[in-house]
């Protein structure tokens, strides 16, 4: 910084004021300082600024993993909002492990991020709390945390599951299986509960399988189901990953959709419209959820707030009717 000050013909305090923007500096002086910064290719020490009580200009984002398109879309929305605020984003993953999640959050806080966004790991096992974050703003999204002081942004998981299963029942299906990831995940369990309730209300028996975490497991599950008594005539999958695994199994077994087996999944993705047949899904607003969560975080950063009771925002889902469920629409029908 002293080299910048010397070249611009000002004091180091003036350079600091130009960089921080906290104190008005004349346009001419600002121009000289910025010219010196460009000539010297000076880069401010962000961590040092944070130690001095200034904002670091960065936020942290912890996701379960990045190979699920849903989480990648959320991350893209967060980075877009961050850029609009002149911020960078540090992104890491927890691999659904509470201890890893805690360690990554602690590492980011030690780097003095100005705020932290997290899609929590297993329900009721996440250790991300207000006690850990202290005065650093913290927002959870997609899944809640047990700490009521933390803001959370969710979608209508149970409602979406209920509506899509009702649609399958309207097609005449009485044996509908739910295939999901772990019930310890809030979203998977909430969607299962929505599925189970509408099945019970219709006087039908719920049939669910969990921990379907690979194509091989999905293949075994589907073979067992279809060869058993009261084999399903329709399948409802819990999220994009399970949808991918089950579709692979359907292809390997030569099953024709929807003639042999009707299909609906929770969460839309880019190629869902181009499969054969196109997939009926519950579409959740991944981009909107990431945008709302990030906007809420920046509002907290700006206000310097750490609330006693956090906001709980629930975003609506859409039903996208294509042809895998048995519909024969020439184009997708979106039901809000």
Summarize the structure.
Residues 1-53 form the HTH lacI-type domain. This is Transcriptional regulator, LacI family. The protein has helices at residues 2-8, 12-20, 27-40, 46-51, 69-84, 98-110, 130-133, 157-170, 186-201, 215-227, 240-252, 286-303; strands at residues 58-63, 88-93, 116-118, 138-141, 151-155, 176-179, 207-209, 234-237, 262-266, 280-283, 312-315, 318-321, 333-335.
List unreliable stretches of 5+ residues.
none
Helical fraction equals 40-55%
- End-to-end separation: 55 Å
Order of helices and strands: HHHHEHEHEHEEHEHEHEHEEHEEE
Main sheet record: 7 strands, mixed
CATH architecture of the largest domain: 3-Layer(aba) Sandwich
Strand content: 15-25%
CATH superfamily of the largest domain: Response regulator
Choose one word for the global shape. elongated
Which topology of the largest domain does CATH recognise?
A: Rossmann fold
Give the CATH class of the largest domain: Alpha Beta
Side by side, the strands of the main sheet go: 7-6-8-9-10-12-13
Q: How many individual β-strands?
A: 13
Total helical segments: 12
Protein name: Transcriptional regulator, LacI family
Domain HTH lacI-type: 1-53
GO molecular function: DNA-binding transcription factor activity; transcription cis-regulatory region binding
Pfam families: LacI (PF00356), Peripla_BP_3 (PF13377)
Structure description:
- The chain has 336 residues and is an alpha/beta fold.
- It folds into 3 domains: 2-44, 434 Repressor (Amino-terminal Domain), CATH 1.10.260.40; 58-155 and 286-316, Rossmann fold (3-Layer(aba) Sandwich); 157-284 and 319-335, Rossmann fold (3-Layer(aba) Sandwich).
- Helices cover 43% and strands 16% of the residues.
- It contains 12 helices and 13 strands.
- The protein has helices at 2-8, 12-20, 27-40, 46-51, 69-84, 98-110, 130-133, 157-170, 186-201, 215-227, 240-252, 286-303, and strands at 58-63, 88-93, 116-118, 138-141, 151-155, 176-179, 207-209, 234-237, 262-266, 280-283, 312-315, 318-321, 333-335.
- A 7-stranded mixed β-sheet has the order 7-6-8-9-10-12-13.
- Strand 1 (58-63), helix 5 (69-84) and strand 2 form a beta-alpha-beta unit.
- The N and C termini lie far apart (55 Å).
């Amino acid at each position: 910084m002293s080299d910048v000050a010397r070249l611009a013909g000002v004091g180091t305090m003036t350079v600091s004021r130009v960089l921080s923007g906290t104190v008005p500096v004349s346009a001419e002086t600002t121009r000289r300082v910025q010219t010196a910064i460009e000539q010297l290719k000076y880069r401010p020490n962000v961590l040092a600024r944070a130690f001095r009580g200034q904002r670091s200009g960065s936020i942290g984002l912890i996701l379960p993993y990045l190979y699920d398109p849903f989480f990648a879309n959320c991350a893209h929305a967060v980075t877009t909002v961050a850029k609009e605020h002149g911020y960078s984003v540090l992104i890491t993953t927890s691999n659904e492990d509470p201890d890893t999640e805690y360690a990554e959050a602690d590492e980011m806080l030690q780097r003095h991020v100005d705020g932290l966004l997290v899609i929590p790991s297993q329900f009721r096992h996440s250790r991300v709390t207000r006690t850990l974050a202290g005065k650093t703003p913290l927002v959870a999204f997609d899944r809640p945390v047990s700490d009521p002081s933390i803001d959370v942004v969710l979608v209508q998981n149970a409602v979406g599951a209920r509506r899509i299963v009702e649609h399958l029942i309207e097609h005449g299906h009485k044996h509908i299986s739910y295939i999901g990831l772990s019930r310890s995940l809030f979203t998977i369990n909430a969607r299962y509960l929505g599925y189970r309730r509408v099945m019970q209300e219709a006087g039908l028996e719920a049939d669910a399988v969990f921990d379907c975490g690979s194509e091989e497991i999905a293949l075994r599950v589907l073979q067992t189901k279809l060869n058993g008594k009261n084999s399903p005539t329709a399948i409802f999958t819990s999220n994009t990953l399970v949808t991918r695994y089950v579709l692979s199994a359907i292809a390997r077994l030569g099953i024709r959709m929807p003639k042999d087996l009707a299909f609906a999944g929770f969460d839309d993705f880019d190629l869902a419209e181009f499969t054969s047949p196109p997939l009926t899904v519950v579409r959740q607003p991944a981009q909107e959820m990431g945008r709302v969560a990030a906007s809420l975080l920046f509002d907290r950063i700006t206000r310097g707030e750490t609330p006693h009771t956090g906001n709980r925002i629930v975003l609506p889902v859409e039903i996208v009717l294509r042809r895998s469920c048995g519909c024969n629409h020439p184009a997708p029908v979106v039901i809000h």
